[in-house]
């Protein structure tokens, strides 16, 4: 989807995601309760909250890993509530996870190429790609987008934790995604790696919207246009990054006082 198409969708009031009354129960435990949330096409949203607030469970319901116990989920206007995860991927939804799941024995470029090939029409072809193969060219572009040119031929298992996170972002960008869910991408990163992460996220094409779950507020508030706070499986508060950062209730519950 081009920037022009995303702009027309936005002007028409189209949403990338619409959740209405979404709940998720695990036996007697209610992990999510009555989540109603709308995210515009191309919007960058942060979801914050303490451990156990329901953030990752919310991601799991959006991606289809855990179907919701109640409510409806629409993705670019289509009801995907009961779609399996792979059908949501085919429609342009992507996700990263808290724990890296990568092929350590593959090089960085081969890992990215495999992701690009996996969502292409030629994914089952046994032919070796030519030098001018379009999928190979896309992999090279993504390698550059996530700032891993110098690690092109390095085995993924030899990368630093931060570089592995960058590989994950490249994999999520494979195959022209329309919307991405980032689950704590800054966890365990050094300060310089966090700066690289912010630069990568802010440089994404304008038509690619995303939601980021993040405990590092300095990252989350810099890459989001709007923030949703969760508490005990419910939406607690929403606002701009400035409004959330200045909110006394948010400071008392999540920040332990003023956040400098």
Automatic annotation (TrEMBL):
The keyword ATP-binding applies. It comes from the Bacteria. This is ABC transporter. Residues 17-257 form the ABC transporter domain. It holds the Pfam family ABC_tran. Keywords: ATP-binding, Nucleotide-binding, Transport. Gene3D superfamilies: P-loop containing nucleotide triphosphate hydrolases (3.40.50.300). GO terms for cellular component: plasma membrane. SMART domains: AAA. GO terms for molecular function: ATP binding; ATP hydrolysis activity; L-isoleucine transmembrane transporter activity; L-phenylalanine transmembrane transporter activity; L-valine transmembrane transporter activity. One of its GO terms (biological process) is D-alanine transmembrane transport. The keyword Transport applies. Transmembrane segments: none annotated.
